[in-house]
Amino acid sequence: MESLKDIYRTEAYELLAELETSLLALEEIPGDSELIGRVFRALHTIKGSGAMAGFEDIAAFTHEIETVFDLVRNKELHVTKPLIDLTLQAEDLIRSMLDVSQDSSPIDTQRVEFITDSLKQLLPKTNSQHFADAAPPAQSEDRQEEKTLRIYFRPNPDIFSRGTNPLLLLNELREMGECSVIAHTEPIPELEDLEPEHCYLSWDVILTTEHSLNAIKDVFIFVEDECDLEIKVIEVADGEEERGSPKRLGELLIERGLVSHEDLQEALSSQRRIGELLVERGVVEASMVETALAEQRHVEAARSRQTVSEQTSSIGVRAEKLDTLVNLVGEMVTVQARLSQVAAGMENPELLSISEEVERLTAELRDNTMSIRMLPLATTFSKFKRLVRDLSSELGKEIVLETSGGETELDKTVIERLNGPLVHLIRNCIDHGIEAPEIRKAAGKPREGTVRLSAMHSGANVLILIEDDGAGLNTEAIRSKAVERHLIPAETELSEKEIFSLIFAPGFSTAGKITSVSGRGVGMDVVKRSIEMLRGSIDISSRKGAGTLITLKLPLTLAIVDGLLVEVREGRYVLPLSTVEECVELSREDVAASHGRHITRVRGEIVPYIRLRECFDIAGTPPEVEQIVITESAGGKVGLVVDRVIGEHQTVIKNIGRIFRDVDELSGATILGDGTVALIIDVPKLVEGVERNQSAIQ
Amino acid sequence: MDLEVTSSAEKTVVKLKEIWTIERTGELKIALQEALRNSEDIVIDVENLTSTDLCILQLFCSAHALSVKLGKSFALYEHKSEPFKTIVRDAGLVRTIGCHRNPNKNCLWTGDWKS
Asked: Which amino acids of A are annotated catalytic?
């Protein structure tokens, strides 16, 4: 069982990721009170739970940063770049404190002191003492079940001249939960009659919170004798109460005595939106409708949250357990395939029916198990915001990272192994791709460069696009560097795509100087190998002066692949179904008609083909009519000629042994229903290898 | 100058820059009254306003109400500074439905107030 400390560590790492994302967003929008609230809440939880789980050092250090953000929250301190820098450093330090807590290494107390002292320097003089003396607040807060409240607050007209800012009170309420604030402007008189220093405004606040009524009243503690304050509970999420659907807008307005039944019926007889209509007729003020709409939204959101939490209450499972489950399901799929094969051969209808039922259940079990391993890419993407920020500042460039498609899911293992290649690619965009601000300006581009990271589904694959609006690839520089490095002979003629692919050659780099970021030429070949090890592919397109687009194509999962089982003599092979387009016949007459060239016509289109029999040096005579499996890869359509197409096969991928380690054309093996082994063909590699051999012969 | 009033045949633009808070409401009230007296179409430019408070927002609301009564146009310039947008959001002024007192059903606080 996981200890409290382990649970805290897991939660704290997630909160640190949330903290980092919020800080980076706050750097862009320094006044955003919602982001400030998110930073504060993350710090507050890290501190509070840390103290409870026995991480007193983390709790004490985080308390110092939380104190600073309390001032920010109260608008006593502005968000500045040094503050963001220091808080990011503090985040790194908390992370390392969590890391060292696992092996009992000492904490870097000097760094703790440095960051704490530096934070103090940022504070106004009057607050630095408060900072030093601030005692950590009580751990147990006055929390109750979630409820939605309507708070009406009308301050004394003299509130401004008494030095109280009602906005601070409203912002304090915002910190307590999900909050909608609606100001009532109707009492503001016309200009002639206006006393500019009087407060005419009043507010309705719809707050969904876990805080107690007392905690909410405390917000108004210094003004309660001089204001109208009404707090009404409009919804309690106790989960047991029988609830109807949320009240309609008309019902809410009648309930509050703002409109009559007659007014409502009259408005309803029209086909227009009820709120607009009632306001237009002067029956009710716009702000009252806004309040009722906010109330409706809050109740609906609170109910939907409760439903979701009831339906999707989750438990944490260790990744190793999940891996074991996937392996077992893999074995199950293999055994089920054997069962289906045996049942089909026995002509026993009862057995056949059971076998089909098992097949259906196994497929469901497989899909469900695989879905448990799927994770959204958003977390991986958000890590790169920090990378881009730090590297661009190190290199004196102005770069913004835009992400999209973070909700796209990929297998956990693929995501874990993708991190390294993506770091390389983004570093390259920043170092080689995006130009220095002055150069961009001179080229008529905005000073700020953009790196776009996006993800999307494409059949059984996920595409990850890394795009920059930098200088683009310089084909001449790549070519001359390749000649200089003896990667190609000087006289070779290459297409633009072939020149681009040279950057994946081991040891290739066009960077004039080696920086800490890139330029050692060890990046792109490693990236390509890593992506290929994930059964993925990488593609580059670029336009000089406009930018570069790198496309990664990755399989959804590494454990199981839907394949097409084919046969050549007695040997069985699996072709990943994602690469298969269609199957056509190849007769002796067709072969004779193409005069020995390995090409065929498919609906008027010429498609080259490769004979697996020749490729794998398999002896014997092919059948009268062979089958061509038309596949689609980066280079276009290519046919693979086999003796027989057996059919679709759910393939559990097994690693092949050392003997096949250097055989690029095979990506793995699988055990068939009858216990024999079928090799899984890596189609793009096979095509690439054949093309390479033919060029060598020519 | 942190207050510029530019009048043309078509409209009067009242441009506020830097800090406008409670201390200067009297001055702004006079400027707005004058604009409403002399022009049919008044635009308040807050693009370069770095800090403001609720008193100023109330003044705008009040001037808008008077403009409706006088049958004149009173609007905020399309580009607003971030601090201005933030305070409008924080104060809960953002509206989806315009004011019924205005025959055009518009309101200073409808529209997009996101950052």
From this structure: 44, 66, 428
